[in-house]
Give the backbone structure.
Amino acid sequence: MLTQRSVALLRTPLSRNASSIAQKYSKATYQAALAKSPATLTKVHGELTAISSALKSNAELASFVANPTLSNADRLAGLPAVYKAAGATVTDITKNLFQVLSENGRLGETEGVIEDFGSLVSKYKGELEVTLTSASPLPKDVQTKLEAALKQSQTAQQAKSVKVTNKVNPNVLGGLVVDFGDKTIDLSVQSRVTKLNALLQESV
């Protein structure tokens, strides 16, 4: 249930710890694409979004990307399947990104890189992407209240538009995790359980 305290917390977000490794690759890719042209940036964004979707629907491709035991030769041999997921024609920037990730043994960072790249593109366009992560799909009235609360935040008011997405993750157990900009508000039951376990460990 959405309480007054929860709404208040939405207006005073905590900092989110993003993967520094993912940010390194996403930032370099973003800068390379934008340096060519805004159209190239849009094209690369579309390719990475398509790859992200493929990773969610293609178990074999997801397993390849997540497998840390593959040799460098095996990783390079599997990259064409990644490019195929990106579309009929793939930019050199996208190919270079995955070649470097493969050579450095960082293909496991793919989802983080794509997510951070999308955030950079949204910021460039003046958009604010908000992800509401819950254990089960949020009822429409609850999501509407959350959107209204978020749009009153200073971060949202500085954006040209706000895009809200509800992501389902049973691991949060209950409650809600809100990600927007570089902020995270953790109102999940899992967070409370983790804190409780830490306290219990300190007491032993």
Remarks:
- The longest strand covers residues 127-134.
- DSSP finds ten helices and five strands in the chain.
- The CA atoms of residues 101 and 107 lie 5 Å apart.
- Strands lie at 14-15, 127-134, 161-168, 177-180, 183-186.
